[in-house]
């Protein structure tokens, strides 16, 4: 079902570990309607895990005060014509609620990371581990939604034993507004999630051109997001053009 996403145009720049800050977001203009900063590890368990990830040469955001960093980055985007979002990781709901409060102050989307594959972060209780513990994930969503903020949940397909449409219904019941799906060569799952929930569904993974955009939109996605090529304006322009054209054609059809 085609919903009304909380941003226009219906293209987002997806977070890149250690790269997606306000300057990166600004560079995606004018091709996107939203840009997801982060991911940001909020509490000591996830920050310890992030430090171990950095030790093996992965980029991470590790400011001394993650909440002040979020506030500063969002303030830096206050005059820019895009809807910012912040992808966060935590081992418990309370820091997620606190980050959601900061996002609410800036009319930004709070995105809960149920997506990261890094073993250190999963051991800390965040990332894709939350998909295996959907009742716990729902408590994170509830903590954020209580702050009157749009809540997105970033998920990943192809995890053994995880039924994503069921997870989508659970997070929707807890207050999620958006399900951001990394389809991982399982594009059909986007359609299954669309059928399962009234949340806005944003499709991600290998979004590069008209063909990839149209495949996800034909499955019912409300928007698409671009990850690694978000630093390539020519790709963003191509995706924006294809997305606009698809929705214009649909709106012109009686």
Brief synopsis:
The protein contains eleven helices and eight strands.
- How many beta strands in the DSSP annotation? 8
Distance between the termini: 16 Å
The SSE string, one letter per element, is EHEHHEHEHHHEHEHEHEH
Number of domains: 1
Percentage of residues in helical conformation: 40-55%
CATH topology: TIM Barrel
CATH architecture: Alpha-Beta Barrel
| Count of separate DSSP helical elements | 11
User: Approximately what portion of the residues adopt beta-strand conformation?
Assistant: 15-25%
User: In one word, what is the shape?
Assistant: globular
Characterise the protein shown here.
It is a single chain. This protein is α/β, with parallel strands linked by helices and 254 residues long. It has one domain: Aldolase class I (TIM Barrel), CATH 3.20.20. 44% of the residues lie in helices and 17% in strands. The chain is built from eleven helices and eight strands. It has an eight-stranded parallel beta barrel, surrounded by eight helices. Strand 5, helix 8 and strand 6 form a beta-alpha-beta unit. Helix 3 runs parallel beside helix 4. The mean pLDDT is 95.
Please outline the helices and strands.
Elements: E1 11-13, H1 22-27, E2 34-41, H2 44-55, H3 66-76, E3 83-89, H4 93-105, E4 109-113, H5 119-123, H6 129-132, H7 134-145, E5 151-156, H8 164-174, E6 178-182, H9 188-196, E7 200-204, H10 210-218, E8 223-226, H11 233-252
Parallel strand pairs: 1-2, 1-8, 2-3, 3-4, 4-5, 5-6, 6-7, 7-8
